[in-house]
Amino acid sequence: MKVLISIFCFSILFSVYSWSQDLDQCMNFSSTPYYARRGVAAPSVTKLRDKALIVEYNSVFDVHPVSDTIKYPNIRIQPAQFDNNRILSDIQSFVKPELFDFVLIYTLKEVAGWIHSGGRLLDAAKNIGFTNSQIGIYKGPVAWKRLRAVPHMNDVLFLDRPTSALPHYGSSLTAFHEIGHNWIQYIAANFTIGPREWTPNKPIAYLAGCCAHWSYAFIPDKNGNNWPGIMYSGPTSKLFNAFDLYIMGLMKYTEAKTYSYTLQEDNQPTRRHEIRLDSLIAALKLGGLPIYESPGTRIPDLDPNMERINVLTIVVKGADEIMSQKDSNLVINLVNIMPEDWKIATWGRSTLASNLKADNFNQTNTTTNKDLAPAPFNAFYSAQEKSIKITRLDQTSSNINFSFSLIGLDGRVHRRTRWNGLDESINVSTLPIGIYVFTMVNGLNQVYSKKILIH
């Protein structure tokens, strides 16, 4: 049985089962890499406090497919991903790439492809639903030695999408869901039968999951845990379930096999069934080689690398896009809450580092020389007006004592003056076409810098 199936089949499954449309990882993941066109300029890379990297290209579509609204009126079902290799190459001098397990990529505006896991760069264990012969073969960039995946997280406004039961639904839990797809849920070894097609003569595992997610057949337990948890199509609780922890290498088989969950039939909810880990392994065995190796338990049983994972958060934006204070706050909040939420999600068995601190961030190579707050301004080139427009973002700050410079790549200073915080335009109609570095320095000698293409 092959674990990977076509985008078309995934899409059909989602339309049939009508699961939550929040995290349609199955609908839009493309296994075909996207490559930026030749001649794309290097981005401007800055640090959002000590939390995340802001990676600014001339356009987001320098490194991501343009939305095809003719073929896909709903761009969320358009298979799409970033040029991950290009982005990782562009940012690797700003961090210690060998330390990171996951890189989350966000945008300011929604792009095609919705939210998905970005594919796996390493299959870390046998007997969890992957082709066993590929275990341990790393498929990522050499410099990023630990990297497991680059989830396609889409626009930052989804971070501000709570539910009444899960305030962090759109932020940390959605991120954990896509991180979780690095392992989960493929062990049921079935992609064509879901709860509505299940009958008692079929493996119970096929009632429990389909299409890389656990199904809606799970019912809450007596302790109020709303299973299946994070790896439903959209998280139903703050927790991974015991099967998830086993698959991730955080719980041994001998412990995981003691857990069971209750499932109900789709058309007969009073008919209930118990699902155990051995039920999943039995379904895996039906797949035979290459996904099953006797005795069917996870090899290795635990993954010591999962005791701590490092997650890098980046925002990819275009030069013409303004990152508002709300956008910045949403990203900062995500990075702040992930460590504690991850500890809860993994039952205290794993820790997560998310800040850009000295142990995983090479500060000497950044374009800033202090721990910066978000820039209180936005600057972009208006081709229509042949000018650089500066707009003030932070209306509350009294520290608007800036000087700015416009410098060519040859080092020549073309403009230099002071800025008093008012919106203004700088006429650059006489300057040659090319890339310039727009730099502002405030009274504390904090530097904000970005590249601007004048054309």
Largest β-sheet summary = 6 strands, mixed
Classify the helix fraction into a percent range. Answer: 10-25%
Using the alpha-carbon principal axes, give the shape. elongated
The structural class is alpha/beta
Give the radius of gyration: 24 Å
Task: Note poorly predicted spans.
Answer: 1-22, 361-373
Number of helices: 9
Strand content: 15-25%
Average predicted confidence as pLDDT? 83
What separation lies between the terminal Cα atoms?
53 Å
**SSE succession:** HHEEHEEHHEEHHEEHEHEEEEEEEE
Count the beta strands.
17
What does this structure look like?
The chain is of the alpha/beta class and about 450 residues long. Helices cover about 20% and strands about 20% of the residues. It has helices at about 5-15, 25-30, 85-90, 170-180, 205-210, 240-250, 255, 275-285, 325-345, and strands at about 45-50, 50-55, 100-105, 150-155, 210, 215, 260-265, 270-275, 310-320, 350-355, 375-380, 385-390, 400-410, 415-420, 425, 435-440, 445-455. Strand 7 and strand 8 form a beta hairpin. Helix 4 (about 170-180) crosses helix 9 (about 325-345). The longest helix is centred in the last third of the chain and has 21 residues, at about 325-345. The model is unreliable at about 1-20 and about 360-375 (pLDDT under 50).
Helix/strand layout:
Blueprint (H helix, E strand, L loop, with lengths): L6 H11 L7 H4 L15 E5 L3 E6 L26 H8 L10 E6 L44 E4 L13 H12 L24 H4 E2 L2 E2 L27 H7 L4 H4 L3 E5 L7 E5 H11 L20 E11 L6 H21 L5 E3 L23 E6 L4 E6 L9 E7 L4 E7 L4 E4 L6 E8 L5 E8 L1
Helix pairs in contact: 4-9
